[in-house]
Design goal:
There is one protein chain. By secondary structure, the chain is mainly α. It is about 80% helix and about 0% strand.
Length: about 400
């Protein structure tokens, strides 16, 4: 693969992966305007965000079997078409109920892009390069939440919230055209796979039973759920407790994102010398030390604004190492049903992330303790899963050697 083709492929897969984050973040500044136009409240408008998250979770499980049965490109084309039509519908939505339903459909469509791009990493690149490619994709995804709300804010003020969905519709169309022109056929459709519910469930179960999958998929999902806790709790911590302005909060959010982005790129360099397994263990161990100190200090009111920013920055740096490597190792055992494995991994991550976010919102405390408690608990569970799962992987590998089997 030439450098030019490699760059184009990474750019295209990154664009597909970023479609979901852009769809989540870009319309957030328009909540007050949407509420005014649809004669409702900002709180009720947030239900359209909830419906999007539900669509993401459901859509990932839907597209996994479709991507394995029909190949990567056909389901991707269908999903992007649904996304484009749903985005167009949002432009003309005249009621909150319509917007909620259309956002659900928009999420179902965007899922095709997310799941297909992850599966195609496994198809198109050698297994040893997967963690590097995932780190590059994380760069694109991490930049999206920094850019999308800013663009959305300016667009909403200048042209109205409807224009945000016109832009999202255009992004979906550009991705569809680019995928049709430049995305290679990465996978031969497996016509033996059934789309009936029972075979699909059995297929997912066969994925979950693989020790390497459940070890690294759940390790990564629990570790990454700390990010959702941070996103959910940070407005209260910075704006309500430390009295930071909305503009200042945006700059802090961008600064902290640099930790996640930068460490994911350092991870690429570290992979030249260390294995993914080593980096995951080191990152999670460091993450545990950081959050335990963060929790103890928060309970005892040790930290001001600067210390809180530093500790969150270090926490996100650890995630920049954990996420690309756990994603790569989760999918490594699969070739025949990488689409299903990719979908299941994404659904687990989103589901646990949503629970972490909901958990933070359950506590009506003017303190960072609920946020940091969930970050700490998630890290402890992730490390326990890793340590127990690694033993199961060794047992599985030894059993396969003894029996002379070759898996997948």
């Amino acid at each position: 693969m030439t450098k030019q083709k490699y760059f184009l492929l990474i750019l295209l897969l990154g664009s597909l992966t970023a479609l979901g984050p852009f769809s989540i973040d870009m319309y957030l500044p328009g909540f007050p305007a949407i509420a005014k136009d649809l004669n409702t409240t900002v709180l009720r408008v947030s239900l359209s965000l909830s419906s999007f998250f539900i669509g993401i979770s459901a859509g990932q499980l839907l597209y996994g079997p479709l991507l394995d049965r029909f190949g990567r490109k056909k389901p991707l084309y269908v999903g992007l078409s649904v996304y484009i039509l749903a985005s167009a519908g949002c432009v003309f939505a005249t009621s909150l109920d319509a917007l909620i339903a259309l956002r659900f459909m928009q999420a179902i469509g965007s899922c095709a892009a997310a799941v297909a791009s992850i599966a195609m990493v496994r198809d198109l690149f050698p297994v040893k390069e997967n963690a590097k490619v995932f780190a590059l994709l994380m760069l694109v995804v991490s930049v999206s939440p920094m850019v999308a709300p800013t663009i959305g804010g300016y667009v909403t003020v200048a042209l109205g919230w409807h224009t945000v969905f016109i832009i999202l519709m255009a992004l979906g169309l550009l991705n569809l055209i680019a995928s049709w022109l430049w995305l290679p056929d990465s996978y031969q459709p497996d016509t033996s796979l059934s789309l009936k519910p029972i075979p699909i469930i059995k297929n997912f179960l066969s994925v979950v039973k693989e020790p390497q999958f459940y070890t690294y998929a759940f390790t990564g999902a629990f570790a990454f759920s700390g990010l959702f806790a941070y996103i959910s709790g940070s407005p209260l911590v910075f704006i309500d407790i430390f009295k930071v302005s909305e503009e200042g909060y945006g700059w802090i959010f961008a600064l902290l994102s640099v930790g996640l982005i930068g460490s994911s790129q350092v991870n690429t360099l570290m992979l030249r010398k260390y294995k993914s397994e080593q980096l995951i263990l080191a990152a999670l161990s460091s993450q545990l030390v950081i959050v335990l100190f963060f929790l103890f200090g928060s309970i005892n009111h040790w930290f001001g604004l600067v210390e809180t920013i530093i500790l969150l920055f270090l926490f996100l740096c650890c995630l920049g190492f954990t996420n690309p490597n756990t994603s790569a190792l989760s999918l490594a055992p699969f070739s025949r049903n990488a689409g299903s494995a990719s979908a299941l991994m994404g659904a687990v991550q989103m589901g646990l992330g949503a629970l972490a976010s909901f958990g933070v919102s359950m506590f009506d405390l003017k303190s960072a303790v609920p946020m940091v408690t969930i970050m700490t608990g998630a890290t402890i569970v992730a490390l326990l899963i890793l340590l127990i799962g690694r033993r199961n992987i060794k047992v599985q590998v030894q059993a396969d050697k003894d029996s002379g089997m070759v898996i997948h």
